[in-house]
Amino acid sequence: MRLSTVILPIHRWSEGQKVWRRAEELGFHAAYTYDHLSWRSFRDEPWFGSVPTLTAAACATERIRLGTLVTSPNFRHPVTLAKELITLDDVSGGRLTLGIGAGGAGFDATALGQEAWSGRERAARFGEFVGLLDELLRNGAVTREGEYYSAVEARNVPGCVQVPRVPFYVAATGPRGLKLAAEHGQGWVTYGDPRGPADVPVEQAPEVIARQLEKLTAACAAVGRDAGELEKVLLQGSTAEKPLESVDAFVDWAGRYQELGITELVVHWPVPDSVFAADLAVFEEIATEGLAQLAG
């Protein structure tokens, strides 16, 4: 099992670079950031762009993997996103992971002046988005006409450092998203029950993930793929569980999900006076000792 973190893009870079370097020093497998134009309670607070932030982080670090968790079609187009990704993969020396999801009905959904898409349209767009992005990152020139997204002689030379392309970690819980994860993903991401994860009792939270893993396994089998090929990523912070209260709490939490087959846990870097408030000293102790205690 690996341990990673999400660093919200809220810091001016004079301070932010210290956080990303510290994440590498602490030994996290990866450091991700959210790809939103603004987000929930942070809407009127500082919030920077994900790709410039990750590019700066790539220059400030040497080993830690970097990525989005997650980007979506809400305000992205595959052609322009592909160009940014091959650049970021190059700058980072092949350390980029693309977390990608269908998006939701938050601020990003209407920021460009469009009506918020229905769930059906969002799922349809997501499928087309992932398929075209996959093709763009694998090929030097792409032409494709889609219902929602098209490319005309779109060039991506020299392509990704990672071959055949940067890995996709697909966030999905429904059948169409899980099919995309099975077809295109090198990893799968969940945060719990999408219908209301914060309302799920602590003792039932692992059951939700177990059912999702069963559906992922079935989706992989349906396309002739072994689910064991995918990383299974759990993003912490959307349930009533409190794994960052102490090292012991983390070990208990991590152990439950390790038994289920989760291969990567992602915890939020503490943000004071927010939903992600946590004791930084305890957080750093978890980063350096948590998995070691779990293995012991």
Q: Which descriptors would you attach to this protein?
A:
single chain, alpha/beta, eight-stranded parallel barrel, two-stranded antiparallel sheet, 8 helices, globular
Task: Put the structure in a nutshell.
The chain has 296 residues and is an alpha/beta fold.
Radius of gyration: 18 Å
Q: Give me the number of helical elements.
A: 8
Order of helices and strands: EHEHEHEHEEEHEHEHEH
State the distance separating the first and last CA atoms.
13 Å
**How many strand units?**
10
Sum up the overall morphology in one term.
globular
Enumerate the strands of the largest sheet in spatial order, edge to edge or round the barrel: 1-2-3-4-7-8-9-10
Strand content: 15-25%
Structure description:
The chain is of the alpha/beta class and 296 residues long. It has eight helices and ten strands. The chain has helices at residues 13-25, 50-60, 78-91, 119-138, 175-184, 205-222, 247-260, 280-295; strands at 2-6, 30-33, 65-71, 96-100, 141-144, 151-155, 168-171, 187-190, 231-235, 264-268. The strands form two sheets. The protein has an eight-stranded parallel barrel with strand order 1-2-3-4-7-8-9-10, surrounded by five helices. Strands 5-6 form a two-stranded antiparallel sheet. A hairpin with a 6-residue loop joins strand 5 (141-144) and strand 6 (151-155). Helix 1 (13-25) packs across helix 2 (50-60), helix 3 (78-91) crosses helix 4 (119-138) and helix 5 (175-184) packs across helix 6. The protein is globular, with a radius of gyration of 18 Å. It starts with a strand and ends with a helix.
